[in-house]
Amino acid sequence: MRSNFLVRALSLFLLAPCTAFAEERPSDAAERPPNVVLIFADDLGYGDLGCYGATKLQTPNIDRLAAEGRRFTDAHSASAVCTPSRYALLTGEYPLRAMGGRGVWGPLPTNHELIIDTDALTIGKAFKNEGYATACLGKWHLGFGRGANDWQPPLRPGPQDLGFDYYFGVPLVNSGSPFVYVENDTIVGYDPDDPLVYGGKPPSPTPTFPEEASRKSPNRFGGALEAHRIYDDEKTGTLLTEKAVEFITENRERPFFLYFPTPNIHHPFTPAPRFKGTSQCGLYGDFVHELDWMVGEVLRSLEDNGLSDDTLVIFTSDNGGMLNRAGRDAFKAGHEINGDLLGFKFGAWEGGHRVPFIARWPGRIEPGTESDQLIGQVDLLATFMALTGQSDELPEGKDSVNLLPALTGDPEEPLRTELALMPHKPRNLALRRGKWMYIDAQGSGGFTGSRPHHHAWGGPAAVEFAGDVNSDIRDGRIKKDAPPAQLYDLEADPSQTTNLYRKSPQVVKEMQARLNAWRSPEATKETAQKDGGSAPAEAPQKDARGEAAPAATPAARVAPARNGAARADASKPNVVVIFADDLGYGDLSCYGPTGVETPHIDALAAEGFRSTDFFVPANVCSPSRAALLSGRYPMRCGMPVARHESEPKYSNYGFSPEEITIPELLGPAGYRSLMVGKWHLGMDVEGSHPIDAGFDEHLGIPSNYSSGRGPDYNTLFRGKQVEERDVPLTELTKRYTDEVVRFIERRKDQPFFIYFSHHIVHSPLKPREEFVGASRKGKYGDFIKELDHSTGRVMRALRDAGVDDDTVVVFTSDNGPTRFGSTGGLAGGKYCTMEGGHRVPAIVRWPGRIPAGQVSDTTVSSMDLLPLFCELAGVEQPNDRTIDGKNILPVLLGEETRSPHKFLYYYNGTNLQAVREGDWKLHLPRTPRDQPFWSKKRDPTKGFVTLDQPKLYNLEQDVRERHDVAAQRPEVVARLQKQADAIRAELGDVRTTGSDQREIDLEDPQER
Ligand SMILES: [Ca+2]
Ligand SMILES: [Ca+2]
Q1: Contact indicator for 380, 75 with CB cutoff of 8 Å
Q2: Which residues are the active-site residues?
Q3: What is the reported pLDDT for 547?
Q4: Which residues of the chain have pLDDT under 50?
Q5: What is the pLDDT of residues 288-335, one digit of tens each?
Q6: Ligand 2 midpoint to CA 174 (Å)
């Protein structure tokens, strides 16, 4: 390999596009292959270095690197987020191609498997194949293992399978667990007798820091006490630097490649004590100072070993700066973390991904120079292949362009005609072409924290604080009449003050066409094949679900709204979801004789589609709501148990801002959204308020109305402001209905989405006075009468506004009934996984489109509403995650009678208790310990609290779940048990963390 290398290096020297400057270099230098040191900072913004204009902190070592090399002013990370950015750096592929075409858009969850194919070419392999010694020292964040990572050594495949001889560092991210170091494929301080246990109790100790350091999440791991003892945030920078110096020194005689992804300056800001107080902008600057020291030590080591002239050093960052606590403090001290650029980490605006990029290679790169070439970090693979004479071996389909001409020369023509840029939200996918920057949606597509104290403050809400101006934004919000997407001329307007979308429609059209090509499933698929990447069908998460593989990836099942000229206005109907609370399958007269007389709701059914097999994936409030709004199982979206407002343990447990909601999806298609009523997803939790979840307007109370639900159990909020305190429950339904009626009047000329979340018929049962005695079923029945009356008023408002025919109305409930209500004969009820807990009324009405009078037993789910509404609005579903719901429009139209769901999963809290396939439902063994707190006690209305053997029911013949046929159909039992194992591996269980499960931000989720 070595001799081969020399030949190639020599030919490289001869072929390289040398400038006159480079040619002056003594010829013997070419005989020694260049070492490469790639320093990859974390969250370091465009304005964070002295050589990029910072004055409140000092970076003499990095500035020296720039003085001795070339500084780029238009360099970009592929994504504004850590994991996808690293994916692109390592693979030379846009992150939207990852995971078999589904793309990786967010930070990788704790227990995720390795997301790079071990067959793929990486920058590590580019060097290793040429005989280099290679090492990765620092933050990995690309996963370990296959299937879920159980954190038991060996952690393979991992960095060592992607071209790095040696790995040492922080396996995930310094702000999240596990707080241990990993060396090669083992945990530093690993003790087989004391393994690292996800969810282990108590969590192992790890240093904590004051608020000024910004967030460090609580440890989610128990065990491995020695490994946790060794991990020290304030020593990480020093430790990694020692490792880097050691590696350079040890390999001074042979070519080496050092990939040095520092945790600096990702939060928590934990510089070694000697750096604290050394900058003029708080811990933020101090952490940059430590980073600068680290760079200085690496440069000195090169010098000490006589390697400076023979080493290409590249310094850059994985994404822009973040406005977390330390970032805000820095700003207040006069330090603009992203310089004059608009926006922050996670977003598509320039501040999210335009980053410092410095390259030094004495004798080859002219010192003290600057380049405004458009370059991307995705280009480093092709660059390193060229550097090592392997250009011919760069696989087809990579998105990487050789940058050497821009490093060593000064090409007149741009190396790149275009560059795709990925923010956190797929719909804000962006494209750079020459001076034009196009973002395919409103806003940045990044952080949505809306208040200055939010950890993830960003987007429109933070523009003013950062001293920026943008023509789409007023008072921290996108203007109502703002264009649906954004176009900027970065030459004339580098700070993105003016959206030219309406001024340059031709450019917009071209950019859109280009992005649509990126997004089309064919394009993604083709490339995946070209690259030898795994075909979509092999994606493990899909396998486990046993459902149709995404042959058409979720990327673009539906044409994006804006280029769908074929979509007439009528195909963008309004959407109203009326969501009852604890309303049972048998509680309405249209569902049978046990029901209360509900003429208005029955009329909906008569005029539309009534389901007799509608599945909600939870039997209590919060998870059912999270599933409806996200289209995902509660376990997948991190909200499997109900939250209680007054218990301190729930103070951080809310609806993750990382979830993509119905209003967030419909907003860019021109929908105005209103949420009214009970939220119960953590209104006080940062990022979990209805407004943070994408609703434009909101009126409601935080959770259930009941004393003991915390101080705000009877406070009516309008958005984040108090509308009125001490509101009686008897008034609320009327207030809510008034609000909905007014909204319909106001918004009738544009598409709207209303999520009307009732308190009825959750306890306390307090109907308004005029309904008392209206039913023959006591307060419970009276309350339902009020619900029916409210529904009638909403329908009348739609008619009065003339939008009745253009509005899809969905009526359903969040879970089965309490003992006051009726399941219509189904077993169980709220709090259990019998049909009575999960099967609820569901009606969909859309005059003229959905045939009237349909009664359907095709299994559909509340999770299907998100895909349905996306279809109706002509917007794409999120393509960066699994959406469990399916587009059920064909079922509603009467064109399809088969269920789109091959399997359904019944979780009670975090416990997987039943699996359904068609008519078969298998109840899985369980103990009271497995149950959430609401189901531990034996209670005939709560199904099987204890089950030793699986029980199998045929719901077609036995919907009441009375006759166990497990003994007669062992093959069905075996099949469903296998499916249970598969979904457990994916979505988790009481003692299992799934591979595609959002972390539950809650200790002991099953206990109160
Ligand atoms: Ca980062
Ligand atoms: Ca409920």
Answers
A1: no
A2: 621, 680
A3: 30
A4: 1-30, 521-570
A5: 999 999 999 999 999 999 999 999 999 999 999 999 999 999 999 999
A6: 38
Pairing of strands 574-580, 752-757: parallel
Closest CA to 268 of 222, 328, 208: 208
Percentages helix, strand, coil for the chain, rounded to the nearest 5? 30, 15, 50
Give the Å distance between the CA of 681 and the centre of ligand 2: 12
Angstrom distance (rounded) from CA 778 to CA 764: 13
Comparing CA positions, the residue from 656, 661, 708 lying closest to residue 682 is 656
User: Whole-structure pTM over 0.70, yes or no?
Assistant: no
Residue 993, amino acid: T
- Each residue's pLDDT tens digit, 912-945: 999 999 999 999 999 999 999 999 888 877 889 9
What distance in Å separates the CA atoms of residue 377 and residue 78, rounded to the nearest whole number? 6
Ligand that comes closest to the CA of residue 818: 2
Give the pLDDT score at 709: 73
Which ligand ends up closest to the CA of 107?
1
Give the E-state strand segments of 271-318 in sequence order: 311-317
| Residue 50 to residues 47, 63, 779, Cα–Cα distance (Å) | 8, 6, 70
Q: Residue 312 forms beta bridges with which residues?
A: 36
Q: In the prediction, which pLDDT does 41 show?
A: 98
- Report CA-CA distances (Å) from 239 to 235, 267, 297, 509, 542: 6, 18, 12, 51, 40
Q: What are phi and psi of 221, to 5 degrees?
A: -115, 140
DSSP one-letter code for 78: S
752 phi/psi in degrees, rounded to 5: -140, 160
Question: Which pLDDT does position 842 carry in this prediction?
Answer: 98
Give the per-residue pLDDT at 558: 26
Other C-beta atoms closer than 10 Å to the C-beta of 332 total 11
The SS3 assignment for 983 reads helix
How many DSSP H helices and E strands does the chain contain? Answer: 25, 36
CA atoms of 303 and 306, how far apart (whole Å): 5
At a CB cut-off of 8 Å and minimum separation 6, what does 967 contact? none
**Which residues surround the ion ligand 1 when the cut-off is CB under 5 Å?**
42-43, 82, 318-319
Q: What is the pLDDT of residue 415?
A: 94
What does 926-937 look like in DSSP terms, one character per residue? B-GGGS-GGG-S
- Ligand 1 centroid – CA 43 distance (Å): 4
Q: How far is the CA of 499 from the centre of ligand 2 (A)?
A: 44
Structure tokens at 1: 């390999």
Distance CA 178, CA 542 (A): 27
Q: How far apart are CA 161 and CA 150, in angstroms?
A: 18
Residues in the chain: 1008
Residue 519: closest CA among 434, 626, 431: 431
Q: Which residues surround ligand 2, an ion (CB under 5 A)?
A: 581-582, 621, 814-815
Ligand found nearest the CA of 760: 2
The predicted pLDDT at position 31 comes to 52
Predicted local distance difference test score (pLDDT) of residue 571:
58
Using the mean position of ligand 1's atoms as its centre, give its distance from the Cα of residue 266 in Å: 6
